[in-house]
Give the backbone structure.
Amino acid sequence: METNKVIEQEKKYIMQTYSRPKFVIDHGDGCYLFDKKGKKYIDLVGGLATCLLGHGNKEFAQAVKGQIEKITNPTNLYYTEEQVKLAEKLAKLSGLNKCFFSNSGAEGVEAAIKLARKHTKKTQIISTKESFHGRTFGSLAATGKEKIRNPFKPLLSGFVHVKYGDVNAIKRKISKKTAGIIVEPIQGEAGIIMPNKDYLKGIREICDRRNILMIVDEVQTGCGRTGKFFAYEHDRIKPDLVTLAKGLANGIPIGATIAKGNVAKSFAKGDHGSTFGGNPVACLAANFTIEYLIKNKLMQNAEIQGSYLMKKLSSINSDNIREIRGKGLMIGMEMRKYSEKMQEKCLENGLLVNLTAEKVLRFLPPLTISRGVINDALEILNEVIENEN
Ligand SMILES: Cc1ncc(COP(=O)(O)O)c(C=O)c1O
């Protein structure tokens, strides 16, 4: 199909919930994407943090193909080996004990909310303002962004939202109904908002003191993006529940909810389930992704290239830039004004960047990115910023 035809048919047959630039992605190679007309783009969006190993990774494709040829989804009615192997890996990496597998971040959060309620026999979940935890009704109730919540009220009850980064604000909301707290180690969709150094530690302490569950949503920060497999490892704490998705299977849909053993026990047979969750294709993809990350030192690469990108972005001299912040390869450049035009200009010049919270250009490239690709991206970005001034 020609590019224009795809765009026309999309409008006709797809619900119009996304704003898309007018080109059609054809394929990818490493940190590059190519459209149907053959134009090449440097990809700093990385499938919104899902593509860890680079686009079109041949070894990954080969491994997944092998599994598809064996079996795709015998369902959770039966044991499969890849699921068990993945659960063991995640338990070891997280220091927690047991997993539930689903297909997306929102579903990972849903499972965490259900489990927290069932385990504590309490209903209230404390979340944070401007947070993003997904768009299903449970995860939407946890989400703090009013713009996303408002059209769908009334939402699931029992959720309160407090200022992000403020431990005392959490303390003030704890009541005898509180089951747990859900928090992102870095708020991604809100514009790469970094809490102060002791925030997670402070939450851990309150949770211990008040006997409530600490749920850390690592859907965006997890799988090595910040330089460690879980972002909470930087803070040397252990949550009670963790959610993962996005990069876990390098772009193949998967969600995971990982819990401490005593908490996990509260899910009894029939309490939760998923037809596709934990299917062997997604689990093999995740096992391969984790092994590849470790073997190729991609978490170290995230740290090294992330620091380099941050340093270079910070050295750009422009009044339009308000702040550069982030960790590893999860970086935001907050501009002083709405920056859709800048994003468009980057795209015209062959650079894909994401815009979140209206003013924040967000960089979530594959963890395989090299200094050379970063330099090429910076050249385009510098030119676009210069012309903006
Ligand atoms: C922290 C966080 N939690 C949950 C989600 C929802 O994930 P999904 O879109 O896979 O449902 C996202 C998605 O951006 C996220 O960033």
The mean pLDDT is 97. The two ends are 39 Å apart (CA to CA). The longest helix spans residues 371-388.
